[in-house]
Task: structure prediction
Amino acid sequence: RLMQISEAEGKDEILPPTIQKIIKGYNKYLRPFFDNGPVSVGMSLDIASIDTISEINMDYTATIFLRQRWTDERLCFDGNKSLSLDGRLVEMLWVPDTFIVDSKKSFLHDITVENRLIRIYPNGTVLYALRITTTVACSMDLSKYPMDKQTCTLQLESWGYNINDVMFYWTRGNDSVRGLDTLRLAQYTVEDHFTSVSEAVYETGRYPKLVFHFELKRNILYFILETYVPSILLVVLSWVSFWISQSSVPARICIGVTTVLTMTTLMMGARTSLPNANCFIKAIDVYLGICFSFIFGALLEYAVAHFCTLHRLSSKELPKPNFVAWICWYLCNIPNQTKYPQYIQESFCLQLQLMSNPVSSESVTENLITSKGEDFIGCSSPMSVMKRLFCIFDCFHVKNPYHIDNYARYSFPLSFIIINVFYWVYYLYF
Result:
């Protein structure tokens, strides 16, 4: 205790007479206007730099100059000039207990000395300035990444003094925050910023709160050159196989597998700087998924075309089993004790013969109509329906497998262009 008294006396001896007169009888543990209502604290900010904006950690790191002004009637003195004091003398004065709400990590610069400023005016107004580097949390919506806009905030509150003790306000409204107009960020552009005044409600009471909002728009040019253009070129490269002969199996398989693997590598590289969260389906993921689907579809197209070609060649070389004849023989030889009438069996046999051998259709039809008369006419309706069903299934049969590549040359680029139009219109304007 004696040491503290001696240190205080030593400080009084060092201080000039004006400061000694001000400090004499001053109690730094009591706020100004202790019995006469709350003290008003005005604040202003200068944004020196925004160093990093991390999507993985969802935060940003900024260096700011925080300036606070308030009036302390106990510090009034005679004169017309302000007094600039050493920052270390702040320990002898009352200062607001301001803190940054969402700060993860902050520090006060102390090279070469602590970057603090104290200035006292004759009317008792105190200017207290700090240089702080802080990492602040920022909740981001990455569903439209990289065509997204993020709104981050910097919130200032009083830790111990509620609204009955301290009131916060911005000294110049929206102009209280400066430095963003000249700020240059690597990946973002500051589109808008504004300030607001509110109150923070906790279990212990209501506390003054100042909020600085700023909107960041991501620059998409980097992602177009880094991700979108390479993915489009890979899709176009996969279409080259449509102009290569189907007999060149190694060439077409090499193009397909190479583009699939390259696209997979590109998709993995695009996610390295993003959080591994399942709740975010980002715009870039959707586009890479579309490109991967087209590349994989081009590989499957060749597999289908090659299979149809081999199947057609084998069907020409090997005799085709006459399943129609077997069915006809079975239906035409069903015993009469069955529930199917004889004319239905023969008419169904006729339809199968017509589909298998259209050349003899006229003669077979005339013979069956002559022999059965009106009974055949009565069963022609269900037989026609069955014939149409066979025609529908026959539509899926590829008559010439070499035409598959011709269809793919037009359908793949056209569908890719249409999907791109919908993609860019949706993510840029909605």
Confidence is low (pLDDT under 50) at residues 1-10, 358-362, 368-379.
